[in-house]
Amino acid sequence: MRIFTNFAPVKILENNTSRIFDLFFCFVFMPMLVFLGGAHYWITEWPLFFSIVCAYFYGCYFVIKHLNVPGLLINRRYVSIAVSAMVFVLFTWLLTLYPHPEVDFYIPVMSKYQTEMRDYGVSLSLWLMMSLVAAYSLTVSFVRELYGQILRQKQIENQKNKAELAMFKAQISPHFLFNTLNTLYSLVIGTSQKAEDAFIKFTEIMKYTYTTIGNEMVPLSDEVNYIQNYIDLQMLRLNRHTTIRWTHDVDDGGVMVPPMIMLTFVENAFKYGASTSRDCVVEIGLELRDGNLSFNTCNNVMKHSDEFRTEMPVGIDNCRARLANLFPGRYSLETREDGGVFTVNLEIQLI
């Protein structure tokens, strides 16, 4: 079994930047917080308490960083943020209840007063330290998220520039292309119904490709029609050995989606899963419910397994990069090969 999991663009520079933030916190920020604040005398007075406090705040930093608060905000997981905040507040409050020895003053009343003032100062220091650690952790999280967004945007722009350059090199005048297709269509009229249907489907596909190439978003209904035309064109060339199961259920065809984002998976399903000599099944499904889009393909691997694994994924990396840029934190994409069957599951929260 081979699993291609969700793509996350990781850069060496990004990893080093995160490590620099961690080292700064461990060896600069925390020591300054301790020795420039009121906690430095805890080292000699209460070494165990000091160790617990340091371990707690170091743990807070890495836990808050791991929670990825920007991602939770993007995904609107406000309950998770609130629960996490309450947990940190609870643990900090419990830390303020740590039992310290009473101040020994020769006047009993003053001993009690001095003890209360000392405990208040310790509690105040703990809450201040917690606030500063949380602020630093959140700052690091938002900087890392912003930096990741910039890297992903740059990667998308580079891939887009490469794609546009490749298209420019191979570009044919649309006017010339469609005139040529019309001429060829006139030549095959009456000779073969299958040939006529193929020309019509191919022309519709080419028109859609040329008209949407510059659009960031298109209605989902147009994408469904595009996929339908592509499947119809494939069915014209295939025979009884390939069974095609195409289902779609959309509650709002006007929802905007990136053009041709799903076509890569449809093309791969036919490229690697269709055959004119062996029985096989190609399944393609699309569903939209309340702004949540679900798209999946399933096909037999008809090519030799080594050849298939060498070539895969074709175009999938580009799709992952587009999805990461357009729907950060709002999509999941899993591709899986298991027992000669290749499946794709794509989920996007469009609204």
| Mean pLDDT over the full residue set | 81
Detail the poorly predicted runs. 1-11, 169-173
Q: End-to-end span in angstroms?
A: 34 Å
Structural class: alpha+beta
Order of helices and strands: EHHHHHHHHEHEEHEEHHEE
Main sheet strand line-up: 1-7-8-6-5-3
- What global shape is seen? elongated
Helix content: 55-70%
Number of helices: 12
What's the structural blueprint in terms of helices and strands?
Blueprint: E1 2-4, H1 12-35, H2 42-45, H3 47-67, H4 69-74, H5 78-96, H6 108-169, H7 174-188, H8 193-212, E2 218-219, H9 220-237, E3 242-250, E4 256-257, H10 263-273, E5 280-289, E6 292-300, H11 305-311, H12 316-326, E7 331-338, E8 341-349
Parallel strand pairs: 3-5
Antiparallel strand pairs: 1-7, 2-4, 5-6, 6-8, 7-8
